[in-house]
UniProtKB/TrEMBL annotation:
Name this polypeptide is given: CBCO1 protein
Organism encoding this protein: Psophia crepitans (common trumpeter)
Pfam families the UniProt entry points to: CLAMP (PF14769)
Length: 129
């Protein structure tokens, strides 16, 4: 279903599409295991997409993307609605778990994702063998 939603057409021959599908699928199942409700699940998937778009489209460095994550998560757990960000439906414990997940899934492997998005070209797979 994610393959259809992401509109991946070359999954069998595109390493980039396969890696991105794997990343989104792993994130989705992690969020399910965290018992996120539908709003939280949607917010988490939006956050994954936001961070990957920062890397792929805006060529953000690891440091800049970490700052963007901090801005996106600012205000979680605060009662003052003006200080709350778009992700204020997460608890502080959930926010900590999200940061831990992002650290092991994206930020720890940031150079690999930079290479995926910004390498000169992709090698095409000729066959399934």
């Amino acid at each position: 279903k994610l393959e259809e939603f992401l509109n991946f057409k070359q999954l069998k021959t595109s390493l980039k599409e396969a890696i991105l599908l794997d990343y989104y699928t792993a994130g989705f199942w992690w969020a399910i295991e965290m018992n996120f409700n539908l709003t939280q699940l949607s917010g988490f998937m939006d956050l994954l997409n936001f961070l990957l778009e920062n890397l792929s489209d805006k060529h953000m460095t690891l440091g800049d993307n970490l700052k963007e994550l901090g801005r996106a998560m600012a205000g979680i757990g605060e009662t003052d609605s003006e200080g709350s960000g778009d992700l204020n439906f997460f608890s502080i414990e959930q926010a900590k778990a999200i940061v831990d997940y992002l650290n092991i899934s994206l930020f720890k492997h940031y150079k690999l994702y930079e290479y995926l998005f910004h390498s000169p070209g992709e090698e095409f797979v000729i066959s399934n063998e």
